[in-house]
Write a structure and sequence with these properties.
Blueprint lengths: L6 E10 L2 E9 L5 E5 L11 E4 L4 E4 L1 E6 L12 H10 L2 E6 L10 H12 L4 E4 L15 H6 L4 E2 L9 H14 L2 E4 L4 H4 L4 E2 L2 H6 L3 E2 L1 H18 L3 E3 L5 H12 L4 E5 L1 H5 L21 H13 L4 E2 L8 H4 L16 H8 L4 H16 L17 E10 L20 E10 L2 E5 L2 E2 L2
Parallel strand pairs: 1-4, 1-5, 6-7, 7-8, 9-10, 10-13, 11-12, 13-14, 14-15
Antiparallel strand pairs: 1-2, 2-3, 5-16, 16-17, 17-18, 18-19
Helix pairs in contact: 4-7, 7-8
The structure holds (4S)-2,6-dioxohexahydropyrimidine-4-carboxylic acid.
Length: 433
Amino acid sequence: MAERSRLFIAGGTVVDATGERRADVIVGPEGTIVAVGEGLAAEAAGADRTLEAGGCIVAPGLVDLHAHLRQPGGEQAETVLTGSRAATLGGFSAVVAMPNTSPSIDSAAMVREVQELGRASLCQVEVAGAITVARAGERLAPMGEMAALGVRLFTDDGKGVQDAGIMRKALQYASDLGVRLAQHCEVDSLAVGGHMHEGEWSSRLGIPGIPAEAEEIMVMRDVALSRLTGAPVHFQHLSTAGSVAIVEAARRSGVRVTAEVAPHHFTLTDESCASYDTRFKVNPPLRPADDVTAVRAALARGTLDAIATDHAPHTADAKDLPFEEAPPGMLGLETALSLALTELDLSPAEALALLSWRPARIAGIDDSHGGPVEAGRPANLCVFDPSAVWTPDSGGGASRSRNTPYVGRRLRGRVRHTLVAGEAVVVDGEVQR
Ligand code: DOR
């Protein structure tokens, strides 16, 4: 961890779950917030560094429930360190690293290895463990061992747990351990061989499709299993109107489900695949406009819990293949906040609820992330200019990969500074190490 100093965040507007107020913020060298209030300049006289925040929002750091950091095994595409740089440039002070690495994160030894890499990175890295051994869906992974190391979220992401009996057992086990299962909802037998959404565009393009029902059937099943076991289920990257409706109905009836949406599912449609550009290939696939509208409306109603990036870096070589051969996935960490601010009809506080305090609770890290910006709290903070306009370019950002579909798109809202445990890891839009 780099040396910390006393920091003065000057002239911003603090926005957190308690409201909005003009305030300066002083951060102490021990990594906690020391003072919050207007006109703190005199008190900040001893600060080692001033971070200008005029015109900016000073918020709790963002928390991503869904990042593929690719280590071990996929270092050509991303490492925990490069992924953490991308995360902090995007305003995230914590990310949950997915376990679909090579080998999978399905044991205490693998968890330790990635936790170690996380400690040397720029943000807090929470490791998600696999639900089943090698994510093969057959035998339960040793969740107890992994939970003992602090793992709070388990998923076979990249695949759904196909067998209802195994999922039921996993939920009972998770419930006993006090951890949460997250599901990649996709019924393999319906999705197999598909490369985009099954509908008008897949027919026109001659690309085999994946029906919306491949996702929705597993959402329905897991709502039922959550009811049966009493254990919470978190649904990852929901993408269809049907999934949203099922989740809303389940919540109304008191079932303990939570759900996230990825930025590409509220900003892009399956029509993008007409370019055969593999940057638009992702799983779950981009859906038609009606689904995008339904997802956006649910975010506006507040019935979904989080925006999670599904940051999925792939090398240029891997993506430079015919559409049906290229791997699914797109970058997300550096553009998520801007896409939410640009595309959704939400106030900054509503966008931050979905990107910070609500996901912090789901990740089980709300003791250190997403809490109010007040004296005594850990200084995990994101300072962004809500009116700055920028355009991602093909040179890419801090990720080791370049597979973003947003090159050339005008975005509003840009991260200026990110603090992680009191360290200014991004200053004026530049990563500091
Ligand atoms: O598009 C995707 N890419 N969806 C997934 O579920 C996995 C991810 C990846 O790991 O590349």
